[in-house]
Recover the amino acids of this structure.
C-alpha cells in the first residue's frame, strides 16, 4: 500500500515489480495523477480516497508492505497512523516511512540566514498566514512531530525498527548543517 503517496511518483516502481498496489490518499489531485500514470504505463492499481488521520478502510493484516513517504506532516496525531499501519500489515510486513527532521520546523523561510522562529512541536493551525494561496505556497497546514512520536510511536505500535536513514535533500541553508529528512524500515 502506498500511504499518502499518490501522484504517480512512487507506486509505479512497485507495480513494475509485479506488486499488487493500492494507493490510499486524501487528495483527489494526487489520485488522478496516479490514475493517469498507471493508464499511461499500462499497469493496474487500486485507488482509495481516505483520510489517514481516521481508521483505515482496510481489514486487519491486508498488506505485505506500506510505503509512507514524507506526508504525515499534514496530520496532528502520527501515533494513530503507526497503530493503523501495524493493524493492516500482515505479520512480517514492512513499513517504509519517511518524515521531516523535527528541527526543520524551528526556522523561518529565509534561505540566507537561519533564525529560530517557531517553538516545537510546530502546529500549522496556529500559522499567521491568512490567505489560502499563500498557505498552499508554503506547503499547506503542517505539523512537526518529535522523534519520540515518529520512531518511538512505531515501536509503541509494536514494530521492530530495522533501519534508519538520514538525508540532506532540502532547499535552503539548513541543509548545510543537518540532515533534514529521515526514513525508517520497520517490521511487524
Amino acid at each position: 500500500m502506498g500511504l499518502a503517496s499518490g501522484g504517480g511518483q512512487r507506486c509505479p516502481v512497485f507495480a513494475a515489480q509485479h506488486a499488487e498496489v493500492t494507493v490510499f490518499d486524501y487528495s483527489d489531485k494526487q489520485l488522478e495523477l496516479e490514475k493517469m500514470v498507471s493508464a499511461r504505463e499500462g499497469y493496474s492499481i487500486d485507488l482509495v480516497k481516505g483520510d489517514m488521520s481516521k481508521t483505515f478502510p482496510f481489514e486487519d493484516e491486508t498488506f505485505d508492505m506500506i510505503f509512507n513517504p514524507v506526508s504525515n506532516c499534514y496530520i496532528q496525531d502520527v501515533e494513530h497512523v503507526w497503530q493503523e499501519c501495524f493493524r493492516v500489515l500482515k505479520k512480517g510486513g514492512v513499513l517504509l516511512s519517511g518524515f521531516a527532521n523535527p528541527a526543520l520546523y524551528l526556522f523561518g523561510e529565509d534561505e540566507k540566514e537561519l533564525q529560530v522562529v517557531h517553538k516545537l512541536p510546530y502546529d500549522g493551525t496556529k500559522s499567521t498566514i491568512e490567505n489560502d494561496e499563500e498557505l498552499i505556497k508554503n506547503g499547506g497546514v503542517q505539523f512537526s512531530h518529535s522523534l519520540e512520536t515518529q520512531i518511538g510511536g512505531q515501536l509503541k505500535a509494536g514494530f521492530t525498527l530495522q533501519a534508519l536513514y538520514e538525508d540532506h535533500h532540502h532547499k535552503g541553508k539548513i541543509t548545510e548543517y543537518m540532515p533534514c529528512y529521515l526514513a525508517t524500515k520497520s517490521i511487524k
